[in-house]
Amino acid sequence: MGLGFTVGVIGVLILGHAAYSTIQYRSLLKITEEEFSGPPMEVVLELLVGLLFCMWAALTVPGKFLSVHPHSDENRVVSLPENVDFMIFNHRGRAFSSEVGLKLKH
Amino acid sequence: MVTKTEESQLNKLENQVDNGGGGAWEYLCLARKLKVRRSDKVLKYGLSILNDSRKRSSQGSDEWTLYEQVAVAAMDCHALDVAKDCINALQKKFPESKRVGRLEAMLLEAKGSWEDAEAAYSSLLEENPFDQVIHKRRVAVAKAQGNISVAIEWLNKYLEIFMADHDAWRELAEIYVSLQMYKQAAFCYEELILSQPTVPLHHLAYADVLYTLGGLENLQTAKKYYSSTIDLSGGKNNRALFGICLCSSAISQLARGRNREDKDSSPDLPSLASAALEKEYKLQASDKLSVLTSTLKCLRVSS
Questions:
Q1: What pLDDT sits at residue A92?
Q2: pTM for the whole thing?
Q3: What is the enclosing helix (H) or strand (E) of A78?
Q4: Which residues form the EMC2 TPR-like domain (chain B) (predicted)?
Q5: Which phi-psi region, left, alpha or beta, contains residue A101 (left: φ > 0; alpha: ψ -120 to 50)?
Q6: Which of B:82-121 have CB within 8 Å of A?
């Protein structure tokens, strides 16, 4: 989790650096009075690297993803809970004494 | 709702505790959360925690919930003196508590003194006329005495006030099925499906009731609900697969005399279901596979 966080921070810093260099490039072009067609190649590569870092961090930092399928093993309802509110006690289990000597000792 | 992972976790913990490894407290917490009725194990391991004063005090305030859980388990296993001791301990800690009063009335029920239990519940209801659990316990007392008609009448009155209680609807449906009043049971299951449409077991129970009622339309609706059960459970519900084969066979038997204008919308559905069943049986019970194939062949031949 610490590694993912650090990678995420690095990715954001890379994106910030790419933005800064694009602004610098634009001001340079204003001095030389040329058209601003797009950021230079290096900045585009920097943007892609920053994107990859940030995406990786976003997927690893939050932790385990829960399943959405209704029929996956985590979500598949196998049996309903016993109706505890309507439980009755005069069933045949009365005849089986489970263990003798069960006592609350205090 | 008990999911598959939770069920396997519960069984694993149960095996672990049975064979002497630790983990009794986690087992009890899981059993309480999933609301399973394993009273003999809960009683045995709960008492082992409660009798050990060190383990008991380490649980802090959860100790009293454990007392309640062990008291109910003791009543279920008919160890009434254990239940009495637990309730006394709870009463010392929480005098004048409605929850403890309810446990005492349940103890009277377990002893078999129905009139005393009934009187205790009525007095508790006078103080708080909208206590849902007390209403339900009264219905349980009527059911335990065998007055099913009184139980039905009270349960209906309860459901007129608290219409959203799906446990009560389920209980009413089961009572109707036990009395073979299938139309009323179908109504209750419809209410359950409306409130919880993603639980496949309600669809399955509804389809079973419709299949039991019989008649061509009911069989066709039953086939649709078996299919929705298979859809919701990812094909892992064997009972629904069997249901489809039986429904198709019954429908084709009924419709044999008439002209089949509306031929099956899905003619290969029963064969798909049979194939899935055979695959499942090969995996889990391969010695019964021959019995299964001969049964399915009879269903298909007679159709």
A1: 85
A2: 0.83
A3: strand A77-79
A4: 100-209
A5: left
A6: 82, 85-86, 89, 106, 109-110, 112
